[in-house]
Amino acid sequence: MRLVILGGGESGVGTAILGKKKGYEVFVSDFGKIKRNYKEVLNINGIAWEEEKHTEDLIFNADLVMKSPGIPDKTPVVKNLVKKGIPVISEIEFAAPFTNATIVGITGSNGKTTTTMLTYHLLKSAGINVGLGGNIGKSFAWQIADNKYESYVLELSSFQLDGIKCFKPHIAIITNISPDHLDRYEYNYENYIDAKFRITMNQTEEDYLLYDADDEAISAWLEKHTTKAKLIPFSLTKTFSEGAYIKNKKMEIRINQEEFTMDTDHIALEGKHNMKNAMAATSVAKLMQIRKATIRESLSNFQGVEHRLEKVLKIQNVQYINDSKATNVNATFFALDSMNTPTVWIVGGVDKGNDYHELMSLVREKVKAIICLGVDNKKIIDIFGNVVDMMIEVDNMNDAVHMAQRLTEKGDSVLLSPACASFDLFENYEDRGNQFKQAVKNL
């Protein structure tokens, strides 16, 4: 069996290693450059590869193709593979049959990284032999090749779910759905929503789907479609005989005739959206029969996720906050909503078809100045130009941070929450967040 892998990044190289171990003839092809450390790994394992090109003769003789999530379906090589009837799948689909581990799969437009990390933290603290993967950390396929985990917590993007046929998590979570990556879904929101719900398409009556019952897109989908999985809702506004909710400042969870309650004041994460993430992760912990004391302790000592509402430093009584992971409008909505002080907002980057109007009321209420950090800021300026007193354009992080410092007074906050992808000026959102933190430390 010939396995061709498109993309020589983390998921591609992980799949190559697992494929080789399982007896496939493996070839890796990357249209860009492959990082040096990945080339070394491929060479050590005797895996053939090419970079900066796709040689058709070496690709179209595949029995199976694993496409990295970053490669769109509409690229010519992918279209031609599909035309020729060669199956094109994602890393998750390829790897899952090679493990008997319990899989928790987490998707959503926002909150999935925090929910994934918190769920992993809860299970690991309980002594479960658990791996963390998917869209985060070490590739799922690579971990299956190297380790023998009993459970996996996987953060799954819609791109990874697009490439599944048989994959099914035992526990699936949809944190929320809001317009994102619409450029990959023909600018059709319904297509994007359907992609998220692929997480439950192979689930059976033995499996569980946890979901945000306050989310309009999720509720609308569930009214029109069915899943065999047992549904477990979580909500900030409703209560359930089976599910998770907040009542009188207490998080209450009722699952399989068992109850768990905890004061929200004792949960380390702050903000309404994080209460939802905590309810989802705690529901998983209850389904996996983790002791209440362990759950309470883990929820109270969780450190949060880097680049997601991360408090960097307080300088001259101004709080600097790194929310570089906010790559869409909905994530930035949560960030602005959680601000309790006058805010200088650093925003901008590669726009994915954003509608900024839904931020308008929060900007009027909380934002004193906007710093646009992007190559093309026209849309942001057009929408908010008359709403805030100060609107400034910069093209690097140092200028953004220095300008922010000038515009603040004691008691203010500076929030980097770009609502956009980072690729115009940075390698990725981590690079953007790290540059922000460094610039703040240099003040």
Structure description:
The protein has 443 residues and is an alpha/beta fold. The protein has three domains: 2-89, NAD(P)-binding Rossmann-like Domain (Rossmann fold), CATH 3.40.50.720; 93-301, Mur-like, catalytic domain (UDP-N-acetylmuramoyl-L-alanine:D-glutamate ligase); 310-441, Protein-Tyrosine Phosphatase, Chain A, CATH 3.90.190. The chain is 35% helix and 23% strand. The chain has helices at residues 10-21, 36-44, 56-59, 76-83, 91-95, 112-125, 140-146, 158-162, 189-197, 216-224, 272-287, 292-301, 329-337, 360-366, 378-384, 397-407, 429-441; strands spanning 2-6, 25-30, 48-51, 64-67, 88-89, 102-107, 130-134, 151-155, 171-174, 208-212, 230-235, 243-247, 250-255, 258-263, 310-315, 318-322, 343-347, 367-373, 390-394, 413-416. It has a nine-stranded mixed sheet with strand order 7-8-6-9-10-11-12-13-14, with helices on one face. The longest helix has 16 residues, at 272-287.
Summarize the structure.
The chain is α/β, with parallel strands linked by helices and about 450 residues long. It is about 35% helix and about 25% strand. The strands form 3 sheets. The protein has a 9-stranded mixed sheet with strand order 7-8-6-9-10-11-12-13-14, with helices on one face. Strands 15-16-20-17-18-19 form a 6-stranded mixed sheet, sandwiched between helices. The protein has a 5-stranded parallel sheet with strand order 3-2-1-4-5.
